[in-house]
Amino acid sequence: MPVLAKEKVLIVEDSTSLNILYQQYLRNENVELLTAGNGAEARFLVTKHQPALVLLDLGLPDIDGMELLEWIKQGTPQIEVVIITSQNAIDTVVEVMRLGAMDFIEKPFDGKRLITTVKNALKQIALSQQVETLQKTYARSEYQGFIGSSLAMQAIYKIIEAAAPSRATVFITGESGSGKEVCARAIHEQSPRKNAPFIALNCGAIPRELMESEIFGHIKGAFTGAQKSREGVAAQANGGTLFLDEIAEMDMDLQTKLLRFLQTGKFQPVGSDKEISVDIRFVCATNKKPLDEVKAGRFREDLYYRLQVIPIHLPRLAERGTDTLAIADYFLKQFAAEENKDFTSLSDKVQQLFLQYDWPGNVRQLQNVIQNIVVLHNATQVEIEHLPHPLNTVSVADNSSIRAPDIPQVPVAAVSPMVIKPLAVTEREAIEAAIAFCDGNIPQAAQLLEVSPSTIYRKKVSWE
């Protein structure tokens, strides 16, 4: 077993006797102890040795402990600080936490309390380092046609990578314009079938009476107007991937035939009595809620469960935080090049509005908005006055600020009953996305969500 490197722990305490006592308490721990008796020494040792943890007494002779805490967190935010204080006032505790302290310990305390505090702090530091490494390793801003580095999209990328090598059917759900076909193509491109055909069929765009022929093909004379035999998408996709978009629009009789096709890999062209066998990977999608369609009797329950082997739900654009700005920037550069325009960026006000807007049409709407702006205007920066309807009717408050990543905000004027979800649903979605991103590692997910692992375990139990 390799010997674990000792983490540096700096004790900042002006009392010599207490300084020695704390060292005695920690002498058997796997740490390298540094000590300082005042603020100046502490600053020198922090700069020189970059300790993982600082045990900081607030009552120093030459500098206010709060000031030293603020200096440490501003200059070296990766260094964690545990405050040692004899002040038990709630405002003191609140202030040190606001300035970035990890924890505090109140005098007097025994060795067991100090050891537990240090061990817990070092465990959290180690976990933070693991999560940071994980994010650097796996966080991607672009992936197989997708643009965005939000936590929700990182989880989607990982599901695609895990599902792609398989033959299992994938069922993609999400609102119109959220990228369902992009997702289907990504699965195909990441699979062993990437050099074979990818055939996409929008079931909502084909008349019902022609849908069966479109999927399975027909022979000459099968129906009026069938002057020659025609191959359907099922045969065209042989060896590759067949993507059936808006599958919930398919009528019930054809759903029965599709179910048999999924189960056997065989079909009959319209008008033929011969079966054809094909090797196809099925990917299906809908912008509806499949279970609601099942309950309403519009979608076969057995077909739903046959498709729901690997479900992927694509988030709304408004739920993807600052991905909106990355996507807008991509489209802006693309259309500016195509139209030979000088646009290079979005103004701060436009960025703010884009982050606040609900985007009912999702990525497709954002793409159309950017194209409209580039075609109709000439400038280097997109301004509020360039925005088309309905964005030009949305006001941005002067005191608004761009929100943190992955926390969608919607202006009051844009809120509708369909936008708001129950808090419990939103919380569960965030927790499940974090767990998926961390490959099921709940402590890492807890670190990303800034909650304790016990909170996640308790929530999971309540869902069962």
UniProtKB/TrEMBL annotation:
<dbReference type="Pfam" id="PF00072">
    <property type="entry name" value="Response_reg"/>
</dbReference>
<dbReference type="InterPro" id="IPR011006">
    <property type="entry name" value="CheY-like_superfamily"/>
</dbReference>
<dbReference type="InterPro" id="IPR001789">
    <property type="entry name" value="Sig_transdc_resp-reg_receiver"/>
</dbReference>
<dbReference type="InterPro" id="IPR025944">
    <property type="entry name" value="Sigma_54_int_dom_CS"/>
</dbReference>
<dbReference type="InterPro" id="IPR003593">
    <property type="entry name" value="AAA+_ATPase"/>
</dbReference>
<dbReference type="InterPro" id="IPR009057">
    <property type="entry name" value="Homeodomain-like_sf"/>
</dbReference>
<dbReference type="InterPro" id="IPR025943">
    <property type="entry name" value="Sigma_54_int_dom_ATP-bd_2"/>
</dbReference>
<dbReference type="GO" id="GO:0043565">
    <property type="term" value="F:sequence-specific DNA binding"/>
</dbReference>
<keyword id="KW-0597">Phosphoprotein</keyword>
<dbReference type="Pfam" id="PF25601">
    <property type="entry name" value="AAA_lid_14"/>
</dbReference>
<keyword id="KW-0547">Nucleotide-binding</keyword>
<dbReference type="GO" id="GO:0000160">
    <property type="term" value="P:phosphorelay signal transduction system"/>
</dbReference>
<protein>
    <submittedName>
        <fullName>Sigma-54-dependent Fis family transcriptional regulator</fullName>
    </submittedName>
</protein>
<dbReference type="Pfam" id="PF02954">
    <property type="entry name" value="HTH_8"/>
</dbReference>
<feature type="domain" description="Sigma-54 factor interaction">
    <location>
        <begin position="146"/>
        <end position="375"/>
    </location>
</feature>
<keyword id="KW-0902">Two-component regulatory system</keyword>
<dbReference type="GO" id="GO:0006355">
    <property type="term" value="P:regulation of DNA-templated transcription"/>
</dbReference>
<dbReference type="InterPro" id="IPR002197">
    <property type="entry name" value="HTH_Fis"/>
</dbReference>
<dbReference type="InterPro" id="IPR002078">
    <property type="entry name" value="Sigma_54_int"/>
</dbReference>
<dbReference type="GO" id="GO:0005524">
    <property type="term" value="F:ATP binding"/>
</dbReference>
<feature type="domain" description="Response regulatory">
    <location>
        <begin position="8"/>
        <end position="122"/>
    </location>
</feature>
<feature type="modified residue" description="4-aspartylphosphate">
    <location>
        <position position="57"/>
    </location>
</feature>
<keyword id="KW-0067">ATP-binding</keyword>
<keyword id="KW-0804">Transcription</keyword>
<dbReference type="Pfam" id="PF00158">
    <property type="entry name" value="Sigma54_activat"/>
</dbReference>
<keyword id="KW-0238">DNA-binding</keyword>
<dbReference type="InterPro" id="IPR027417">
    <property type="entry name" value="P-loop_NTPase"/>
</dbReference>
<keyword id="KW-0805">Transcription regulation</keyword>
<dbReference type="InterPro" id="IPR058031">
    <property type="entry name" value="AAA_lid_NorR"/>
</dbReference>
